[in-house]
Design a protein that fits this description.
47% helix; binds ligand C2E; 8-stranded mixed barrel; binds calcium ion; globular; alpha/beta; 278 residues; 11 helices
Length: 278
C-alpha cells in the first residue's frame, strides 16, 4: 500500500511540474502586486474621427512598482495567465476602473470603457458575477461597458464561450472582437460569435496607404462587420494619412498614438472634458 501511494505521489508531482511553467516565487509576486494595488489601469482614448470627439477608452494595465518602475503588460500578462491569476487581476482592475471613472461616466452616459478579457474568462460563469458585482452597484451603466475578446488565442470551447457572451450581452454590455484578422477565428468568428464591435489589428491598419494585402483585409473585415451591423474600430493609427483611408472605408472610430497613448486616469478625464463625447 505504501509503495502504491508513493507511486501515485510521484505521478502527481510529475503531472503538476509538467502543467506549471512558473515558480511559486512568481505566483507570489503577482499575488502581492494585486493585493498591493500595483496593477494600475491606464486609459487609451478611442476617437470618433468624424467629430473629433471621444467615444471612450480602452483600459490597458501597467504594473507600477513601489519604486515607480512601470512595466508593460507584455512582460507579465502571460505570467498572470499561467499562474491562474488572470481572473483576480481583471477583477481588481475593473474595481479600480469604477473608482477612477464612475463620477465622470455617470454624467456622460454616451462614454464607453473597454476592458480586455482573457480567453480563460470564457470557460467559467465567474466573469458574469464579477461584472455584476462590480458594475451593477456602480454609477457606470452596463451599456457603457465593452468587453474585448482577442482573436490571437483560441477559445477553449466555442459553445461555452457563446453562452457566456450571450449572458454578458443580456446584462447590456457590448462585446468586441480584438486583434481581428490576426488569429484563430478568421471571418467565421465574426458570424459565429454575435459580437457588437470589431477592432481591426494594427498590423493591417499599418498597411493603409501602402497598398498591399493589408488594405484589402481592412476592407473585407469592414464590409463584413457593417453587413453584420457591427461597429468598427481601427487600432494603432499613427499617421494622419491613415485617417483618410478610414473615412473612405466608412470606419468612424480609431485608436492610436496619432491621437493619444494610454493615459493615467486624470489625464484621460481631462481629455474627456476638453474634447467632449461623440
Ligand atoms: P491590445 O489589447 O491590442 O492593446 C493595444 C496595444 O497597442 C497596447 O499595448 C497599446 O499601448 C498599443 N498601442 C496603441 N496605439 C498604438 C500605436 O499607435 N502604435 C503602437 N506601436 N502601439 C499602440 P500594451 O498596453 O503594451 O498592451 C499590449 C497587450 O497586452 C494588449 O494588446 C492586450 O492584449 C494585453 N493587455 C493589456 N492590458 C490588458 C488587460 O488589462 N487585460 C488583458 N487581458 N490583457 C491586457
Ligand atoms: Ca484590446
Ligand atoms: Ca449600474
Ligand atoms: Ca488589439
Amino acid at each position: 500500500a505504501l509503495a502504491g501511494s508513493l507511486v501515485v505521489g510521484a505521478l502527481i508531482v510529475v503531472l503538476v511540474t509538467r502543467l506549471i511553467h512558473y515558480t511559486p516565487a512568481q505566483v507570489n509576486q503577482i499575488e502581492r502586486a494585486i493585493n498591493q494595488g500595483e496593477f494600475i489601469p491606464f486609459y487609451q482614448p478611442v476617437i470618433d474621427i468624424e467629430s473629433g470627439k471621444l467615444v471612450g477608452c480602452e483600459v490597458l494595465v501597467r504594473w507600477v512598482k513601489p519604486d515607480g518602475t512601470t512595466i508593460s503588460p507584455g512582460a507579465f500578462i502571460g505570467l498572470a495567465e499561467q499562474t491562474g491569476l488572470a481572473i483576480p487581476m481583471t477583477r481588481h482592475l475593473m474595481q479600480t476602473v469604477v473608482n477612477d471613472l464612475e463620477k465622470d461616466y455617470a454624467q456622460r452616459p454616451g462614454l464607453k470603457v473597454a476592458i480586455n478579457l482573457f480567453n480563460h474568462h470564457f470557460t467559467d460563469l465567474e466573469i458574469i458575477q464579477d461584472v455584476e458585482n462590480i458594475f451593477g452597484p456602480s454609477a457606470i451603466a452596463y451599456n457603457q461597458v465593452v468587453l474585448e475578446i482577442t482573436e490571437r488565442a483560441p477559445l477553449e470551447s466555442l459553445a461555452q464561450a457563446k453562452v457566456i457572451m450571450r449572458k454578458l450581452q443580456r446584462l447590456g454590455c457590448r462585446l468586441a472582437l480584438d486583434d481581428a484578422g490576426t488569429g484563430h477565428g478568421g471571418l467565421a468568428y465574426l458570424q459565429e460569435l454575435g459580437l457588437d464591435i470589431v477592432k481591426i489589428d494594427k498590423m493591417f491598419i499599418d498597411q493603409l496607404g501602402k497598398g498591399r494585402i493589408g488594405e484589402s483585409i481592412t476592407h473585407t473585415l469592414t464590409d463584413l462587420a457593417h453587413e453584420l451591423d457591427m461597429d468598427v474600430v481601427a487600432e494603432g493609427v499613427e499617421r494622419i494619412e491613415q485617417v483618410a483611408h478610414l473615412r473612405r472605408y466608412g470606419i468612424r472610430q480609431a485608436q492610436g498614438f496619432l491621437f493619444a497613448p494610454a493615459l493615467p486616469a486624470s489625464q484621460y478625464l481631462a481629455l474627456v472634458k476638453k474634447l467632449g463625447v461623440a
